[in-house]
Design goal:
- This protein is α/β, with parallel strands linked by helices.
- It is built from two helices and eight strands.
- Strand 7 and strand 8 form a beta hairpin.
Length: 131
């Protein structure tokens, strides 16, 4: 069976992105690989083996066009309200908490936040299928 191990996103400013993911999700640099024209930065935390790979293309000055194909990355947390408050206190501008119901039952509680490059990240309360 296949196992999901990382997702890759292209970012303009390595230090700004590393700091965002550290503050928001407790992700630290697991490995940094520097090449002639680009740098790969793998971020992880003890909660999961899954990593976020930041690709920094050297010499790039313009923001990346995310287009209409990118959706979002999702993470789950134990206390959504506390995380929403923490994000707000850090100035990370979380969107409002949404409750999504189906057939009269709670399916999901979540909010979205954007990283410095505009990538959307869904923060879900651990519940049901979102463990």
């Amino acid at each position: 069976m296949a196992k999901a191990i990382h997702t890759m996103i292209r970012v303009l400013d390595e230090s700004r992105s590393v700091e965002f993911y550290r503050q928001a999700f407790g992700l630290d640099i697991a490995e940094r690989l520097d090449f002639e024209t680009f740098t790969l930065v793998y971020l992880s935390n003890p909660e999961s083996d899954f990593e976020v790979e930041l690709t920094v293309n050297k010499g790039r000055a313009e923001p990346y066009a995310l287009g209409d194909g990118y959706g979002h990355l999702a993470v789950s947390v134990a206390d959504l309200d506390a995380e929403h408050d923490r994000f707000g206190a850090l100035g990370l501008n979380p969107k409002k908490i949404v409750e999504f119901n189906r057939d009269g039952a709670l399916l999901a509680r979540f909010f979205f936040v954007e990283d410095p490059d505009g990538y959307k990240i869904e923060v879900l309360q651990r519940h049901g299928r979102f463990k």
